[in-house]
Amino acid sequence: MGLFSCNAESAIATCGSYELLTKKTRKAAAGKRPGEITKFNFTDLDTATNGFSPENLLGQGSYGSVYKARIHRINLIAAVKKTKRNLDSTAADNEVEILSRIYHPCLVNLLGFGLDPGRRKLIVVEYMPHGSLYELLHGSSKPPGWVKRVRFAVQIALAVHFLHSSNPPIIHRDIKSSNVLIDAGFHCRVSDFGLALRGHVEDVKVRSTPPAGTLGYLDPGYLAPGDLSPKSDVFSFGILLLEIITGRKAIDFDYSPSSVIDWAVPAIKSDDFEAICDPRIGLPEDSEYLRRMAVLAAKCVRSTAEKRPGMAEALECLKSVYKGIKQKTQMCGSLRRRVGEGSRACKYEPLDDSVDVVRSTRRNGKVSSAASVEPTDDMIGDRVGRSKSMGTAGGIKLVPADNSYGQVNERRVGLNMRMTKSRSMGIMQSKRLVNSNGAVVRSRTWARNLEESKLLIEFR
Fold first, then answer.
1. Terminal alpha carbon distance of the chain
2. How confident is the model at residue 45, as a pLDDT?
3. Kind of pairing, strands 64-71 and 57-61?
4. Active site members
5. For site-directed labelling of 7, which of 303, 368, 371, 432 has its Cα 20 to 30 A away?
6. What DSSP element (H or E) covers 379?
7. In whole angstroms, what is the distance from residue 13 CA to residue 4 CA?
8. Domains and CATH numbers, the chain
């Protein structure tokens, strides 16, 4: 577990906002730090955190605690990481050493550092108020929808691809949902570089560092220092992608099998993509996007590192999925809005035992009447004809009743009316049927709304 890695109940909060930048803008932003790394004096940080008070505590991990800091002198809100006294500063030194050399909009970037009276490093990073992706996926009452989930996956892939493309490359070694933090713009940032290694895999430091990571995300092929490669991060990213798709934790003993990979990958191989979809949000508008994400995740968690895709390939796949699912969702949403605006619903009120269609106000004095029918106990009336004038309602059809109409109530009437501003329409009142000849008229009990459009009367 990396420096200040957060458990299930807590997270480091960091800030900033990040949109899916264009390729040109992203290249310009990546690697260019907007300011110099600041060395803070302890007095400023102690004052900013109210003496590292519990009220300012943001989260705790195995390496220490994180506090919210308001540094009024430079008008800055930040997060300050403080190591435990009984631990050495190796992880903190490693994080400062790596983060001081890189900058990216999809990372939780270093702002500065300080030293406490015991000469332990205090790491100052960006602050954001929305916690971790772990909390959002597993602890939120409103889980994110598909567009946000795919966008999160793209932003995480951007960050990991940036690390692997650096010179020399950086292997994070602890990619997981609790190390992905949500900024003020509700965009993902990769954090916690306490376990990260900077250098080529053949470098002495990389080859001599013991394996490390988090259970459930750790590459099973990473058993010795020489086994480490960027594909180890790809495996962890694949687990995180399954977590985003399914809404299940990497390891969850409430389920059998407890490992998300042991449960999800067989379903993916069987093309049962609906089975692994997070039931809280259901399938996306087009299940093809779910299939492509799931297949990518299955490729990333292959047991053989050489068979896994690189982060560049994973990123391009996810960007394509994001573009498609966003357009599809926007198109469907626009269609729903148009349908909703095209017809206003008026509240349905149950009618009396019979209805009467009153004479039209037109001079010709047309009256709407219905042809007489003799329904039996197993018949339900279907639609009558439509007319711009009230006229005679003819062509009533009787069809066998089935369960799709719901319960049939004797001696009840339901009218499904769509009304226009036709000048030939009269007024309808609940009295009796003209020329009903004693027919029993029945209603479908699920009818609740009447829409204002063309006139349509149904005898049920």
1. 67
2. 96
3. antiparallel
4. 174
5. 303
6. strand 379-381
7. 12
8. 23-335 (1.10.510.10), 344-460 (no CATH)
Q: 2 — alpha (psi -120 to 50), left (phi > 0) or beta?
A: beta
Query: Residue 208: exposed, middle, or buried by beta-carbon count in 10 A (0-12, 13-18, 19+)?
Result: exposed
Q: How far apart are CA 64 and CA 276, in angstroms?
A: 36
CB 439 within 8 A of CB 433: yes
For residue 68, the cross-strand partners are: 79
Binding-site members for ATP are 82
* Residue 173 CA neighbour count, 13 Å, CB half: 29
Torsion-angle region of 119 (φ positive above 0: left; ψ -120 to 50: alpha; else: beta): left
Q: What is the largest CA-CA distance in the chain?
A: 101
Encoded tokens for 167: 């010179």
Torsion of CA 321, 322, 325, 331, to 10 degrees: -140
Q: Give the amino acid at 129.
A: P
Please give the structure tokens belonging to residue 407. 């319960």
What b/e string do you get for 65-81 counting C-beta neighbours within 10 Å, with b at 16 or more?
Answer: bbbbbebeeeebbbbbb
pTM, rounded to two decimals: 0.69
Distance of alpha carbon 223 from the chain centroid: 34
Q: Is 419 helix (H, G, I), strand (E, B) or coil?
A: coil
Give the annotated binding-site residues: 82
Per mean pLDDT, which range of 9-23, 141-155, 319-333 is the poorest?
9-23
Length of the chain: 460
Q: CA torsion 179→183→186→189, rounded to 10°? A: -40
Element (H, E) at 57: strand 57-61
Condensed to tens digits (0 to 9), the pLDDT of residues 173-205 reads: 999 999 999 999 999 999 999 999 999 988 878
User: Which of 86, 75, 83 has its CA nearest to residue 114?
Assistant: 83
β-sheet bridge partners, residue 121? 115
Please check whether residue 16 is in contact with residue 189, taking contact to mean a CB–CB distance below 8 angstroms.
Answer: yes
3-state secondary structure of 67: strand
| Burial of residue 407, with CB atoms counted within 10 A of its CB: 0-12 exposed, 13-18 middle, 19 or more buried | exposed
Distances from the Cα of 236 to the Cα of 62, 209, 439, angstroms: 20, 19, 71
**pLDDT score for 15:** 40
Pair of tokens at residue 316: 């391009």
